[in-house]
Amino acid sequence: MEIRNVKKEDITEIRNIYSKSYIDEESGRPKDEDVDYFTKKVEDYVDQTKESLGSDYYYLVAENNTKVIGVIGTRKPHVRLLPLAKTDNSVELYSLFVLEKNLGVGKSLVNKIIEICRQKGYSEMMVLSANRWKESWPFYDKLGFERAGTITELSGRLSQVWTREL
Ligand SMILES: CC(C)(COP(=O)(O)OP(=O)(O)OC[C@H]1O[C@@H](n2cnc3c(N)ncnc32)[C@H](O)[C@@H]1OP(=O)(O)O)[C@@H](O)C(=O)NCCC(=O)NCCS
Hints:
The structure is a single chain. The chain is α+β, with helices and mostly antiparallel strands. It has a single domain (2-165), classed as Aminopeptidase. Helix content is 31%, strand content 30%. It is built from five helices and seven strands, in the order βαααβββαβαββ. The chain has helices spanning 11-21, 32-46, 50-54, 105-119, 137-142, and strands spanning 2-5, 58-64, 67-75, 90-98, 124-129, 146-152, 158-165. Strands 1-2-3-4-5-7-6 form a seven-stranded mixed sheet, with helices on both faces. β6 (146-152) and β7 form a beta hairpin. α1 (11-21) packs antiparallel against α2 (32-46). The longest helix is centred in the first third of the chain and has 15 residues, at 32-46. The structure holds coenzyme A. Coenzyme A binds next to β4, α4 and α5.
C-alpha cells in the first residue's frame, strides 16, 4: 500500500468511496447530494481553486495495486472547533474514508497525514465527527486522540470533537 498525494485521475474512485459511505438509511442508496459535495471538495483541491486554498484543503489517498482504497484530508479548523482547541495552531482532520474496513488503511492514512502536518509546523490536530459516524468514534480514541467536547447540531444530534497534540 502506498500513501500519496491525490491526483485528478483519482476523482472517480474517490467518488466511488464516498458513494459507498454516504448511504441513505431509508432507501439504501447513495446520498448524491453528500457524495457530490465531498467529491467537489477534492476536485477543488486538485484544481487549487481560491476557495480550496483559502481553507487550506489538503488530501492524500491510499493506493493498492493501482486502486484507490482510502482518502483523508485536512483543512483549517472549522470555526465551530475553535472553542475546543488547545492551541492557536491546529489543523482539522477531514473526510477520512476507506473502501474496506479493518485492514489498517485508516491508521496508515492518519499516521501519514500527522507526519506531514508536523512537518508543516502544526502543533494540534482536531477531528469533528457527526453522530452518523458514531461507530468509528473508538477508532480516534485508539489512535491517541482525546475527546475535547461535543457540538450540538441544528438537528439536535451531538457531534464529537477530538484533539491530539502533534
Ligand atoms: C473509521 C475508518 C476510517 C477506520 O479505518 P480502518 O481502515 O477501518 O481502521 P484500521 O484498520 O486502520 O484500524 C486501526 C485500529 O483501530 C481499530 N478500529 C478501527 N475501527 C474501529 C472501530 N470502529 N471501533 C473500534 N476500533 C476500531 C482497529 O481494530 C485497529 O486496531 P489495532 O491497531 O489494534 O489493530 C473506517 O472504519 C471507515 O471508513 N468508516 C466509515 C467512514 C467513517 O466513519 N469515517 C469517519 C468519519 S469522521
